[in-house]
Amino acid sequence: MKDVWESVIGLEVHAQVIAQTKLFSSVPTTFGAKPNTQVSFVDAAFPGMLPVLNRFCVDQAIKTGLGLNAQIMLVSTFERKHYFYPDLPAGYQISQYQHPIVGEGWMEIETEIGEVRRIGIERLHLEQDAGKSVHDLDPHKTYIDLNRAGVALMEIVTKPDLRNAEETVAFLKKLRRTLRYLGTCDGNMEEGSLRADVNISLHQPGTPLGTRVEVKNVNSLRFIAQAITFEIARQTALLVAGQPVEMETRLFDAQTGETRTMRNKEEAQDYRYFPDPDLPPLRLEAAHIAQVQAALPELPDAKKKRLRTTFGLSAYDADLLISEPEFAAYYEETLEALLKGNNHRELTSHEAKIAANWVLGDFFSHLNRTGLSISSTPITPTRLAKLIHLILQETISGKIAKDVFALLETEEGDPMEIVTRRGWAQVTDIATIEALVLEVLAKETAQVAAYKAGKEQLFGYFVGQVMKASHGRANPQIVNAQLKKLLG
Ligand code: ADP
Ligand code: MG
């Protein structure tokens, strides 16, 4: 057992708070605005300007804390964290250190083999983002864009409870989903709204944790997994060779898939934290926290459970449907609309399953193919529900329904109007179908003779011919019945 090394991972996640304005100033936070158009005197650190705490951001942090099953602190404080960086005009960042707004909590993840693991949350605190240094506009100059300076961030710190790259990715996906359901962070990793520092160490089971290495600001799940895999291999090689792992901060290089030293322990910064004299301690009322709690939306796990128990959906379908809050909302609105069309008779699990199939199948491929979003597609939940209704009532077959669905992309009106316009309604009139059957049988004299002589497998062929003659519109059950009658 001497050379068995176990990896241990803890995360520091920075999540940009969804808010109209910044943490301590009232300028907007719109992404992609022209450089330096969203900067107040506070953000630019003009002398004498006072920060004013944005209560909406405070509520966002409370919401997030509650969503992470964490303790909300009735008193928290803001501190100045000092460091020099050109895009940090004040020379310090206002953050929370000794007394964060959110204390310990947890979130559960499911591993690939279906094991549920509870990952501890150490804390969540509020802090300001820095500005952005732009190095690629000019070969000799660096430009500073302060639009992001002062935007509210939540730093979410986990306990060192994760064991490998797979669990870390599962955790971040779950966290991202939870934040999106809560409406507190959009989780967009490409735009930098969600970024993670990854701490990795190795130890031998049953012994204290080893020295950790921090890998900074890796901005995609794939890179995070690569960085972890690389670090585990690098540290294992050192330890097996009897060499120590240095405590350091490393950077991930996406080109090579490797990490390299950014700064070591000796260069570690002393931030000289001290309470911000401009900001009094933040005090929260228990009643206010209870209000926020009562207004929390249903979170993904609860929603999945409900979809499964109420409608008997498979774990697989339920997982896909809850993967984004918009998907779940679309599905539930479709069920809602179906229910209305049903005069509020309870939906059967068969109906819920058909709706799930349409959303996960044709609807998702429609979004993929057209690049439309759920909010911009003309195929609204109501229209989809009306289409499903036509199938359930056997007004159209499943096959015709696919054609109608495709037309919903470009044609206006209810599915029934499209069906009528094209003359696609299912034919259920017995006399009409009987006429079609007679017509087919009259043409197929040789096959009819063979059938009557005992070649019974020809029955399916006759069904096919009648369906074809009706352009796919005849009701198959009636076709079967009429064929049986007229051949018998
Ligand atoms: P700092 O703020 O100096 O980075 P913290 O003690 O707050 O230090 O830890 C930061 C992160 O490092 C947390 O996510 C924690 O889970 C993780 N961590 C702490 N010890 C270890 C360890 N031995 N191995 C891996 N991760 C660790
Ligand atoms: Mg750290």
Structural summary, described in words:
- This protein has 488 residues and is α+β, with helices and mostly antiparallel strands.
- It has 3 domains: 286 residues, no CATH class; 123 residues, no CATH class; 58 residues, Arc Repressor Mutant, subunit A (Orthogonal Bundle).
- Helices cover 40% and strands 18% of the residues.
- It contains 15 helices and 15 strands.
- The strands form 4 sheets. Strands 5-6-9-1-10-11-12-13 form an 8-stranded mixed sheet.
- The longest helix has 22 residues.
- The radius of gyration is 31 Å and the shape is elongated.
- 34% of the residues are buried.
- The structure holds adenosine-5'-diphosphate (ADP) and magnesium ion (MG).
- The site of magnesium ion has 3 residues, from loops.
